[in-house]
Amino acid sequence: MGKLKxxxxxxxxxxxxxxxxxxxxxxxxxxxxxxNLQMLEGGPNAINAYANFLQTLPWEFLWGFRIVLAACFVxxxxxxxxxxxxxxxxxxxxxxVKKSLASSPAARTMIYSGIIILLFxxxxxxxxTVINLNPELKELDxxxxxxxxxxxxxxxxxxxxxxAFSNDWVAIAYIVSMILIGFHLSHGVSSxxxxxxxxxxxxxxxxNAIAVIYCTIVAAGFSLNPLSVxxxxxxxxxxxxQKEVMKQFDAQKAQNKTPIFIDYNFLKNCKTCSSTAPVKxx
Length: 282
Hints:
Layout: H1 2-36, H2 45-55, H3 59-90, H4 93-102, H5 105-108, H6 110-129, E1 140-143, E2 153-155, H7 157-165, H8 168-195, H9 201-234, H10 242-254, E3 260-261
Parallel strand pairs: 1-3
Antiparallel strand pairs: 1-2
Helix pairs in contact: 1-3, 1-8, 1-9, 3-6, 6-8, 8-9
């Protein structure tokens, strides 16, 4: 009896850790998505200022946040893995089959989607934070024209994202990963309420609906930037100035210029979605 009690308490603690770390990670995704959507505000000012603000936070805040986020990620994955192993060892095969038939596809594949999301997070950090998968993106700089950084040279995240997503495979892989994250969240967001005792049968369907809405917003929000770049690349509709940015980027790269500065003066007379290329200011 004592062993059973210890096992139950251990499972409850793991589920509680899963719920808390899941809440932190899901909240971070929403904030991160809203920050990324500043790409669509009509130019580099908003997203570049936002990115530079984050990068220049006092190291105590910046690294404290990164360490907490990394710890949540590791704990979330580790406790999920331990719970899966624990459940498989404790359940008879017949019950497991019956339970599998009753659960959703998202619930049955949480551990697998989680592994893929973990791999995506590592690649994403290497690509956009450490910038060692495509080192030439480090060369993109921009002189701020307004706001708190006016006149200062900071990293051009706006151009970096346009250049990166101009690679079809990168854009498609990013969108697919966002769909997978949304699929993972569709079960995770709802189940974390159950793990802390906040979901009963009355609220089950309501929370499931909230989880679906939330994961759809997150997945769609993150997918907007790569989709906008692809639309701008292959159609006359210039949601983002993909054609002009790539033209300038390729020309300066061919001349071995470092750093690379994109001249955004063309945005002053750019007519979005009305021409095959932006009109340059005279």
